[in-house]
Fold each of these.
Amino acid sequence: MNTPDLKEARRRTNNKVSIKENEYKVTDKQRKIGLNKKYYIKTYGCQMNEHDSENISAILNDMNFTKTESLEDADLIILNTCAIRENAHNKVFGLLGRIKHLRQTKNIMVGFGGCMAQEEVIVEEITNKYKWIDFVFGTHNIVNLPNVIEKAYDNKKQEVEVFSCEGDVIENIPVKRDSKYKAWVNIMYGCDKFCTYCIVPYTRGKQRSRLPEYIINEVKDLIKDGYQEVTLLGQNVNAYGKDLGINYTMANLLEDVAKTGINRIRFVTSHPWDFNDDMIDIISKYDNIMPYIHLPIQSGSSKILKLMGRRYTKEEYLNLFKKLKEKIPNVSITTDIIVGFPGETEEDFQDTLDVVDACKYDSAFTFIFSPRVGTPASKMEDNVSLEEKESRLQRLNQLINKYSKENNDKYLNKVVPVLLEDYSSKKKDCLKGYTDTMKLVNVKADDIYLGKIVNVKITSVKTWSMDGEIVK
Ligand code: SAH
Ligand code: SF4
Ligand code: F3S
């Protein structure tokens, strides 16, 4: 069985990308499979996976399955998995224990998809040790789910469809969106950056951008359907268009999406390496491009950044950060940080704390390095103990939380725009939503305000959220 191979994977960047518009088909027979059956879907991982689950749901709808929120109630259980860190794996294998019991006691089907299904070691484990799982499908195979599910029901043996048609951009897969007000819009798939710790370039394949006209048309359709906000999705959105060869960049795309007039535009994730001045100018020029940027740094030590293959230094990152703060009024910036990368000394870790002190991030996702099979970093010598890594994570989180609270405190008594998107899960008689700068706010409001962007006065502030009331 092969493990991810950097050399081999790098070769792919020359393969030609083809756009496929007519791949998705459901036969009359397949439409009957889901009649009187319910599906349950569990999604792990990033926004990309959440959006894939919206596609999977729409396909199951076309096959006449209906959705249930209860695992016990389901005739079909789908796991859309993530491979980014070991604990993502562990969560999935934990749930599989519960599902196995259900599978043994009643007549249900179980499907295993997502990024773990793109890892050969995992597929090997499933075919050997989890023979009761009915079908396995990769991130590139979602479009073919009707056939995979049909075969699994007919043949009663494990179906595995995990091939890497990673040179394709597949258009016209149906989507059943979780929200009526904000939508994910893929602008590119895959990643060619090959940061040395990361599994994504192997599980998601080579970078391929969607053509601008498809993206713009999707946004225009969303406006017609009443959507207020779109988030443009990619592992590396700033590199958008580089693979198209039509001289059209992320800055061009942002401007064209802004011109559609949609109320709110967001984008994730921005790799600092490709963040150019044109992009910054466009973000500051258009009011409907939100002043919020997720700008992962990963480490503050230039030595570790080099080992990670991030291709910027601490100083280059800080310059970019400063420029963003200067040129985009009121911008909020968040980040991702890994501690305990192989070879990270206390001094390197101090560099990371220095950067956090300099940037005073609005918030951050922080992780302990997790070796992924086959990636270059998993073969590097790692002499930092787990205790030390945990202590670094804790110290880092304390600092991050301090700045989150300080940043939020500045909002007290201010009036800010909030898109009210759902009922608050925390507070009674409240709706929740996000500010333009991506702060979570619980707002005392009637549900006639759902789906509206309203002005909210912030009345109290915590580290992770705020409370407020509508000002008329
Ligand atoms: N494309 C995005 C990151 C996607 S993965 C970017 O380049 O910024 C989300 C985050 O998971 C990463 O930013 C990184 O901080 C973390 N991550 C990825 N691989 C990891 C690993 N092997 N161990 C620990 N954290 C990891
Ligand atoms: Fe992973 Fe992001 Fe690096 Fe791509 S740019 S390899 S997704 S961390
Ligand atoms: Fe996880 Fe795959 Fe996203 S590995 S973070 S679900 S791209």
Amino acid sequence: MLSGKSAIVTGSTSGIGLGIARGLAASGANIMLNGFGNADEIEAIRSDLAGEHNIKVLYSPADMTKPQDIADMVEQAESEFGSVDIMVNNAGIQYVAPIEEFPIEKWDAILAINLSSAFHTTRLALPAMKKNAWGRVVNIASAHALVASPFKSAYVSAKHGIAGLTKTAALEVAEHGITVNAVCPGYVMTPLVEKQIPEQAKARGITEQQVISDVLLAAQPNKRFVTVEELAGVVTFLCTDNAKSITGITLPVDGGWTAH
Ligand code: NAD
């Protein structure tokens, strides 16, 4: 379905990004993985994906807080694949604390990784996409791009920012065969969510089990976590030609959360 296309998926050594990389690879796209983690484990993922799907799979250790790293990553992908047709901006971190106690360095890091990195990858990937008259930018936002929750000021601000960037970029490139969309997941049980359970328990003065039932799944009417496989399917669909008229949207994949 996507053979001959090449994709960068930021933050794809874990969780949702890895699931999306697997989904795009299964559809035939070459993949540049990115993110942090154990070098041997990342190499195992890289070589397994390449062998399983008979595609090229590269890995970039680019740090999404560093614009020069991001430029090097896009340049490497363009030179080794020939083009970057699909840019999935997924890297993200979370931190949970009341605004008046929110560490300044956490605010800066969340804005850089969850928002500014997508500005950089998009500005760098668009010229070649325009030249090829085909491109897909998919931003992994969050239900928190559409609604807020307490104690997540930086995350909610960055994700609302991603929604704005998505709409603006979509309008700028609509006549070039390029779509720009945001996918807005509800809760997915990945390391990012597992880590915030004790933080939420502390901020709210409740147990970790109560965080799962009364905070996380309380928001989701279908009372289950979204899976990475579901998200990979949605992103892959947005990259197909059948989705070429879908652009500038913030698509909730949240079990009904934002229908409230
Ligand atoms: P995760 O912690 O499992 O994965 C995050 C990925 O980002 C990892 O590969 C990590 O190495 C990478 N990363 C972190 N900092 C980086 C940096 N400075 N440079 C490069 N890579 C970096 O998290 P996840 O739950 O899979 O989240 C992925 C995305 O999905 C995030 O943008 C997150 O906000 C979003 N999201 C997650 C959920 C959820 O419930 N898990 C819900 C909605 C949206």
